[in-house]
Amino acid sequence: MQFTRPMVLSLFAAAALAACGGGDDDDNTPEETRLQDSRNSFVPAEPSATTFAALQAAPGDAVDNATTSRWAGVLNGAAYRVEVPANWNGRLVMYAHGYAGEGNALNVSNPSIRRYLVQNGYAWAASSYSKNFYDVRAGVEDTNALALAFNNIATANGRTLPVPTRMYITGHSMGGHITAAAIEEEALEEANHKVRYHGAVPMCGVVGDTELFDYFAGAQVAAQALAGVPNNPFTGWAAVRDQVTNTLFTSFPGTPTATGAKFMSVVENLTGGDRPLFELGVAFGGSFSPVWGVFGGDGTVNGILNKSSLDTTRFTYTIAGDPTGSAALNAAAQKLTATPDANRERRDGLRWIPKANGEIGIPVVSLHTLGDLYVPFSMEQIYKRRVVAEGNDRWLVQRAIRGISHCDFTVAEQVEAFAAMVQWEQGGAKPAGDDVLTAATVAAPTYGCTFTRDTLGPDDSNTTQQLRGVIAQSGATCPQP
């Protein structure tokens, strides 16, 4: 990754460490490059923007949203937005957006809880990142660089501000991965731009990092085996896609055949086990279609790595109620093994796909929907096990939300999680969460009801309203507090 690394003019005394190089390895041999390093045509979608639109007023707003300071610009090739209320409370929230595809235009996303932040005195900042594709390393570095530049940006725009007393980070999907990776001990040691955050809220995040791509691979080899083409080359998915699809679905993705029902049983176990709303997630299909679309990759995550990180050897494929069929499937499915050191630590900064190892020491409150089949609920189970293995369970709270698609949260659910994290970080009791590991608990019909809030507000999208409407029509809603 070819980052530009200008000296950061403002160092945060308590909130951040000075920006510096990567590891302490004395080896001066240049690091290898990869395809992503040669992709240099990314440009901000609005390179001349100096501000952005004020938040529209809504009933109940306590302050005038138009009085905030709103600055836009470009930092190290990445576009950014920064918003500071007139009554700033001294706290800065960094927002990390999700996967933005493979186009050249770099776009900034406002946080979904923007209204809550502005109305409660929080400043926020968001980067477009300097590259698209699944480049979590760029996401961490560019988000951190923007955090470090916050005071300079304010000063350059005529507003002198004190150093933030607290810095928090939150993000969705790939941004949830960025959030989880940015608070790791490894990031504090190896990032080129080092920031010590005080709390984090990863949402629908890839908090199992490369294990997400293992899930995609496991689903593909299981689908091929059940469709009768187990030995078709893994990267040759295009040649059998239609055959597999027609064997497993009468209508893709929501109506499986009898064989397809066995496959979806396998997918249920790969994505977190028996749990409410999985069937609705399948029937709706919104988060499963993208899974079908990423099959057949070479394991480099489209040029982010040079070698394959895919490993399916730990999977045991289970068809509920069919031990004979399960045994036959496990015998037939291809086994993929990762190339050693495909995602090794590097001497020039973070790994190409930064890890969420569970080495955390700050309050973390995460959210995940139960029906998400693209970045599935099993990500939370993987993250929980890693955090527990590192002895850091006291810092993690996880909440299951009864949504049926990817990042299918209401704003109220996200606000509650963020507010709970801040109250905890400010000395309050550790907030309540959900047990994500006990199978009987996860399978209970009311699982996820505790933190699901179906009340819709002015910032909930039409998609969110539609998805919650699907749940309501199914009768799977929960009593609201």
What key phrases describe this protein's structure?
eight-stranded mixed sheet; alpha/beta; Alpha/beta hydrolase; single chain; Rossmann fold; AB_hydrolase_fold; 2 domains; disordered N terminus; two-stranded parallel sheet; signal; 481 residues
Protein architecture, described:
Keywords: Signal. InterPro entries: AB_hydrolase_fold. Residues 23-42 are annotated as: Disordered. It comes from Pseudorhodoferax soli. Residues 1-18 form the signal peptide. The protein is α/β, with parallel strands linked by helices and 481 residues long. It has two domains: 35-209 and 349-425, 3-Layer(aba) Sandwich (Rossmann fold), CATH 3.40.50.1820; 211-332, no CATH class. It is 31% helix and 12% strand. It has 14 helices and twelve strands. The chain has helices at residues 114-119, 136-156, 174-182, 185-190, 211-226, 237-248, 258-270, 278-284, 289-294, 323-332, 378-389, 411-425, 439-443, 462-474, and strands at 43-44, 69-75, 78-84, 91-96, 105-106, 123-127, 166-172, 199-203, 249-251, 255-256, 364-369, 396-401. An eight-stranded mixed β-sheet has the order 2-3-6-4-7-8-11-12, with helices on both faces. The longest helix is centred in the first third of the chain and has 21 residues, at 136-156. 52% of the residues are buried. Mean pLDDT is 93; it is low at 1-25.
